[in-house]
Amino acid sequence: MEAIVVAENLEESMKKSSLGNATETQKKNRIQVSNSKKPLFFYINLAKRYIKQYNDVELSALGMAIPSVVTIAEILKKNGVATQKKILTSTVDMKWETNGRTVQKAKIEIVLGKPEDSDNQAAATAVAAAAAATPAEENADKKE
């Protein structure tokens, strides 16, 4: 019981330190995508939520999950939910647990942000919906 309390206090002190806060804020809006763990639309909906909450999101993947990240980013861009800010590619050294050999894996990071005209777009959509409803109501009045 005491060990748990000590660990919690250690975590709290790390959060309070400037280094802990910097690391914490950098990781808040990061999504590490996997091919096999969750369905694609889980990541899409999570990214939408992060964009609303933090105004941007960082999608990250290794190896065979890279096409999934690209697909997620393209779906979000096509739907007008996000705009592309930055793409980073690199290789990462990974160690196999079984034999200890080092293998290089491809890594991608895509940073997406809230579209600049998202507020204007929402207002324009509302106006368009109201304009589309008005002629239908006028036609209904003429029929009566």
From TrEMBL:
Signal sequence interval, chain numbering: none
InterPro entries assigned: Alba-like_dom_sf, DNA/RNA-bd_Alba-like, UCP030333_Alba
GO CC aspect terms: nucleus
GO molecular function, one term: RNA binding
The organism's place on the tree of life at top rank: Eukaryota
Segments forming domain DNA/RNA-binding protein Alba-like: 29-91
PANTHER family xrefs: ALBA DNA_RNA-BINDING PROTEIN, DNA/RNA-BINDING PROTEIN ALBA 3
The protein's name: DNA/RNA-binding protein Alba-like domain-containing protein
Source organism (scientific name): Vitis vinifera
